[in-house]
Amino acid sequence: MARIQPATKLLLSMALALSCAGPVAAAVTVGGFPYEEVVRAGSQDLKLNGAGTRYKLIFPVYAAGLYLNEKKKTPAEVYAAPGAKRMRLVMQRTVNADEFGQAFIAGIQQNNDKAEQARMAEPLAKFGKLFATVPELKKGDTITLDLIPGQGTVIQINGRQAAEPIGEPAFYTMLLKIWLGDKPADSKLKNALLGDADSAS
């Protein structure tokens, strides 16, 4: 009987382990950028609710993906969803960071009443200053907006925390309304984030 060499045994063991490990989470590609089906935010695993592209006129600006504990189909369900949340943006073109930040603020103002904006004046000021620290956002740069229970809104640019967490949980809902509110940044992107695959491109 032929003996199996140690190296061969090792390769067979690795193959068996991989075959028993279960399927690897598939990635959705939006604008050439991958979005994993499952990510980790804080201590929680989140599922990709939907992903799509933000267009300005006919030009793609960024890819966006929304992650939640469980998939939701309406903005109200997304806002009310418990636990951690994530919005992940990947730039599809280079833009001036200050102008990009101003567009964020405009989206907040258009989708939140004045009383709520007044109540969130301090978090909004902190958020507005964030983009002043970055001269520009280049194609491929990533902005991650996480809601982490016990911390608040945690913002990262290219994997590095860009500012102190914003503790008020309601502020994250204000951010989400940029994309999911009554006057979203891009109505097709809104549908894509809510799981409409036909709106994802």
From TrEMBL:
| Acetylation among keywords | no
Q: Which Pfam families match?
A: Chalcone_3
- Domain Chalcone isomerase, by residue range, is 27-195
Q: Which UniProt keywords apply?
A: Signal
The lineage's top-level taxon is Bacteria
Residue runs in coiled coils: none
Keyword Chloroplast among UniProt keywords: no
The record's PROSITE patterns line, in alphabetical order, gives:
PROKAR_LIPOPROTEIN
Checking InterPro entries in the record gives: Chalcone_isomerase, Chalcone_isomerase_3-sand, Chalcone_isomerase_sf
Looking up SUPFAM superfamilies in the UniProt record yields:
Chalcone isomerase
Annotated signal sequence range: 1-26
Output this protein's name.
Answer: Chalcone isomerase-like
Q: Which organism is it from?
A: Noviherbaspirillum suwonense
